[in-house]
């Protein structure tokens, strides 16, 4: 290219008389050092005054090189200034202060008419310095031209923005890179005079836009940092949370945390990675499992409060399962949370049993009393018969009394029987009648009357008989304990697909404050109460997909309403929610 030459050739031009103001944008450090070294050597070689503005470390490196050729006295003739202190001095870049500073250093020499060389690496300090920088270079260009100075203004090409470079090329006649020097096509002599209004506005505009860009960039960096932090947190959560988590992508397992591998008794992750998730998660209920698979494959999330899974070693555990959409390694995936409920289920079973035994114990006294009466009359009539005073009707009385004893003993046994855990279809009115038998004595002792009413149609529910009886024994017992000389109404009503069992007493009622606590464990207002009865009733009702509500007024009485789904044959409508339908079909 025309006019192009290396710095060496350029300085060596014997016929060069005009001043040199070079804009140097460097990008390779070793070439920068080589060029600076050549510049200083040229000055020393020709006994010229040279001002060198650089960082101390760079200067020390160059000085070592110079000392290989020149004496230290000679090298010390270089006027060295630390560029950081020279240009910024802990403050903003100030064009006038800096150009005056250069002039004050050079004036004594210029007055003697000596030729001067300047090399300075100019620091571009902050976003607002373009106008200052340009003003500085304009000032420099002016006295460089007037005083016939040779000056290289070096800028770091890797950090200086292109818009600044473009502006600076207008104030330098020459443009230099690490390897070449050429004439700057943008150089404008009129800049030697002053900024035009138009120019000032234009630069202010550039600076404003640049500030906005820097601001946007900072926001982006911040957002990026937040995203990066969140990503890290997400990973940490997945790894450290003591909750079993699996992630699948297109049905394939892509992630499993330690807890999931342990709770689901799975082989090491490496061995199952990439396999279909449906290969190692098996429900005991195949119908439900198919539902889960279909739900996920039709891009819907899935949740199941309790589901039994059959593990590799054939053991069965109960889990809460939730499958939700998530992002994993930049693509849509499904995150499965599986919480092992097995220990809680065992605890719950134990609690239900303990409370049942407690109920049976409490009932025993009343039952003994109930059995004692018929026994006394049987004994009396037996004696009469023994001594030949028997009449036909005594046998009938003895038969009736024996039936009554048998009935009570049977009921008592049912309550004390271990849980069968088998859901069967039972008549709700029969269950209630049998529970009534157990509680009647206690009711009579307290002057209470238990009045039952049933619809004509026999209503059936699918349930565990002993557990449902346990619920009604506790509710009826609570009603009897709260009531004195009053009525206890037990009403069974059909409501579409459900049956309501309403237990209404005329007892002491429950205060508003106590009402919020009655289901809490160990809340009791009774001297010998356990405070576990209602809590266990709620658990059993929940396991039967039922509901419980309560209304109570102090001094008036309390009404409990229990609702259970009817067996399918008796339902007026089939429920539409597939998941709920599922739940019902498994348990009820
Ligand atoms: P417990 O009968 O051992 O006290 P429960 O859980 O069965 O335990 O009942 C908790 C409390 O709820 C009772 O102590 C009582 O204060 C209140 N409660 C329950 N049912 C009734 C009722 N029908 N009338 C008044 N209070 C009741
Ligand atoms: Mg109770």
Automatic annotation (TrEMBL):
Reactions performed catalytically: ATP + protein L-histidine = ADP + protein N-phospho-L-histidine
Domain Histidine kinase: 366-568
Keywords: ATP-binding, Kinase, Nucleotide-binding, Phosphoprotein, Transferase, Two-component regulatory system
EC number: 2.7.13.3
Entry GO MF terms: ATP binding; phosphorelay sensor kinase activity
Keyword flag Transferase: yes
Full protein name: histidine kinase
Protein species of origin: Alkalihalophilus pseudofirmus
Keyword Kinase: yes
Organism placement in taxonomy: Bacteria, Bacillati, Bacillota, Bacilli, Bacillales
């Amino acid at each position: 290219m025309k006019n192009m030459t290396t710095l060496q050739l350029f300085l060596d031009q014997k016929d060069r008389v005009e001043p040199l103001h070079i804009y140097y944008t460097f990008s390779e450090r070793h070439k920068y050092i080589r060029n600076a070294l050549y510049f200083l050597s040229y000055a020393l070689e020709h006994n010229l005054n040279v001002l060198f503005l650089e960082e101390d470390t760079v200067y020390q490196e160059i000085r070592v090189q110079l000392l290989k050729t020149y004496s230290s006295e000679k090298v010390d003739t270089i006027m060295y200034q630390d560029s950081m202190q020279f240009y910024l001095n802990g403050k903003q870049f100030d064009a006038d202060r800096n150009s005056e500073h250069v002039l004050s250093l050079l004036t004594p020499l210029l007055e003697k008419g000596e030729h001067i060389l300047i090399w300075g690496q100019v620091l571009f300090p902050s976003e607002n310095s373009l106008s200052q920088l340009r003003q500085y270079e304009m000032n420099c260009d002016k006295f460089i031209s007037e005083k016939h100075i040779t000056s290289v203004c070096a800028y770091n090409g890797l950090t200086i923005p292109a818009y600044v470079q473009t502006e600076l090329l207008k104030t330098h006649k020459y443009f230099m890179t690490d390897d070449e020097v050429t004439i700057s096509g943008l150089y404008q002599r009129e800049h030697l005079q002053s900024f035009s209004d138009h120019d000032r506005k234009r630069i202010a505009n550039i600076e404003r836009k640049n500030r906005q860009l820097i601001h946007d960039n900072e926001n982006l960096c911040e957002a990026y940092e937040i995203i990066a932090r969140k990503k890290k947190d997400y990973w940490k959560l997945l790894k450290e949370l003591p909750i079993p988590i699996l992630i699948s992508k297109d049905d394939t397992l892509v992630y499993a945390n330690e807890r999931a591998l342990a709770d689901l008794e799975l082989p090491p992750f490496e061995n199952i990675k990439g396999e279909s998730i449906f290969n190692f998660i098996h429900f005991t209920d195949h119908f439900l499992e198919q539902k889960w698979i279909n739900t996920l494959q039709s891009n819907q999330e899935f949740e199941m409060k309790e589901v039994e899974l059959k593990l590799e070693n054939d053991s069965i555990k109960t889990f809460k399962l939730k499958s939700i959409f998530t992002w994993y390694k930049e693509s849509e995936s499904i995150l499965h949370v599986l919480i092992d409920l097995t220990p809680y289920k065992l605890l719950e079973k134990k609690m239900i049993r303990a409370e049942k035994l407690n109920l049976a114990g409490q009932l025993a006294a009343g039952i003994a009393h109930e059995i004692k009466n018929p026994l006394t009359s049987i004994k009396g009539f037996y004696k009469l018969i023994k001594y030949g005073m028997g009449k036909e009707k005594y046998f009938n009385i003895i038969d009736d009394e024996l039936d009554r004893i048998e009935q009570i003993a049977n009921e008592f046994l049912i309550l004390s029987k271990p849980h069968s855990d088998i859901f069967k279809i039972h008549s709700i009115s029969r269950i209630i009648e049998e529970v009534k038998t157990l509680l009647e004595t206690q009711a009579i002792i307290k002057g209470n009357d238990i009045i039952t009413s049933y619809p004509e149609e026999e209503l059936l529910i699918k349930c565990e008989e002993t557990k449902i009886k346990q619920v009604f024994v506790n509710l009826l017992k609570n009603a009897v304990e709260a009531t004195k000389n009053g009525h206890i109404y037990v009403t069974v009503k059909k409501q579409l697909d459900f049956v309501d069992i309403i237990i209404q007493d005329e007892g002491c009622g429950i205060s508003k404050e106590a009402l919020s606590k009655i289901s809490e464990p160990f809340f009791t207002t009774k001297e010998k109460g356990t405070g576990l009865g209602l809590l266990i009733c709620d658990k059993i009702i929940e396991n039967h997909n039922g509901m419980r509500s309560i209304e109570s007024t102090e001094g008036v009485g309390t009404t409990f309403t229990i609702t259970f789904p009817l067996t399918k044959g008796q339902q007026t409508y089939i429920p539409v929610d597939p998941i709920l339908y599922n739940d019902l079909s498994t348990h009820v």
